[in-house]
Amino acid sequence: MMRFLFPALLGILFAGLSSARPPHIVLIVADDLGWNDVGWRNPQMYTPNLDKLATNGVILNSSYVQPVCSPTRNCLMTGYYPYHTGLQHDVIHPSIPGFLPANFTTLPQKLKELGYVTHMVGKWHLGFCNWKYTPTFRGFDTFTGYYNGAEDYYTHVRGDGYDFRFNTDVYHPADGEYSPNIIAQRAITILDEVDPRNESLFLYLPFQSVHAPLEVPEKYERIYSNIHNKDRRIYCGMVSALDEAVGNITAVLRKRGFMDNLLLVFTSDNGGPTYSGANNLPLRGAKTTLWEGGTKGASFVYSDTLLKKTKYLNTEIIHAVDWFPTLLRVAGAAPDAGIDGMDMWSTISENTTSPRTEFVYNIDEIKKNAAIRVGDYKLIEGSAGAFNGWYPLPTVEGSLQAGWTGNNTDHAIDTSDEYRLYNIKDDPTEHFDIADKYPDVVEKMKQRLAEYKKSLVPANYPPPDPKSDPKYYNGTWSPGWC
């Protein structure tokens, strides 16, 4: 294992990094954060902590994620596209026995081989029907948080069941405590227990924020009193609450000495749900769609010491699968051959040309749609989704739907054999379908998509299982039914 390598070899592996000790890594995931819902893009947003980190680090302007939650988390944990793990369709709903297959080695498992201590606080959403699919069986030393998504921020209830754990035990935080505060408090406790000089830390913080339900303490909502649309006002308040939680965590990271040798990665897991308070301007579409507004993530990296170039906007293509090999590179190791991800460390830290020239947005054989990017071109096969317009910020008097270019299926493609082509470099907002103008490009892209489809693993999306019912587990969502 890597922890037994001789010091000289470790020095080679860490060439280009500032310390021979593997750096601390903090990976923060914001849930349902829109492209236009951060202060460094939208002055309406109050996110001073995130803005300071982003503008003093590297803002990633072409960082792609999946259209919904579970598939992106799959990418982060494995370095594989969802269509290679069976998680390409929808998300893992509470009663569906879906999961990240156990034969895939996760990022924390790899990092533990390098001697890291690994902790997770927040939302898992990669399966829990069997204990072996849960975080402490997938490489994390400790886990505090949720198995599912969309829990109430105060009661931690999803549907008919309670969903909050400390490791494998059901855990009840203080009554009425807001979810981002719980996550921040637990993260700070971990930081107080880890010795930054003698241990290397991997801290995975997939926040529940800012996913529905729209809930926030009033003091954050008051920041946006000039916004008369209630959903938008609450949503923005949730973003600011998330920002404060990140600020509290980073303050302790600095106080405890972690920042001397640390890389912090921040990313959303999908585009913002414009139908639930978010905004993706100027991008087209929303969460759940294959448009840029559903698949471009608000993302940045920050480090005091590890980045060779900082305070710039990186426009090179990066995909969520790339974080797996990139973070392993930062830790001093190489991933196994054959994964979908690519090492982007020099691209991010030095602004060199990205080795990635193409990627798969998704291939979903159930929805019968797909999208790929090759060079500047993007091909969409079938329907891009159900929210397909360019949705402006709601007017102070109007609703979230004010200004939409049509109803919820505006611009949807109804037939599965239809293709659309866009030049994302020239047309990043996807206003101009050029498929008819460049049929030769469409044909080449179709052939490339067909090659990708040859390695597709059928979606693991079975019907709901009644054995999952929380009534069998004292009212909690619990493993043990698959």
TrEMBL record:
GO MF terms, alphabetically ordered: metal ion binding; sulfuric ester hydrolase activity
Signal peptide boundaries: 1-20
Keyword flag Oxidoreductase: no
Required co-factors: Ca(2+)
Keywords assigned: Calcium, Glycoprotein, Hydrolase, Metal-binding, Signal
Pfam families per record: Sulfatase
Superkingdom of origin: Eukaryota
Domain Sulfatase N-terminal: 23-333
InterPro entries xref list: Alkaline_phosphatase_core_sf, ARSB, Sulfatase_CS, Sulfatase_N
Family: Belongs to the sulfatase family.
Protein name: Sulfatase N-terminal domain-containing protein
Source organism of this protein record: Sinanodonta woodiana (Chinese pond mussel)
Higher taxonomy: Eukaryota, Metazoa, Spiralia, Lophotrochozoa, Mollusca
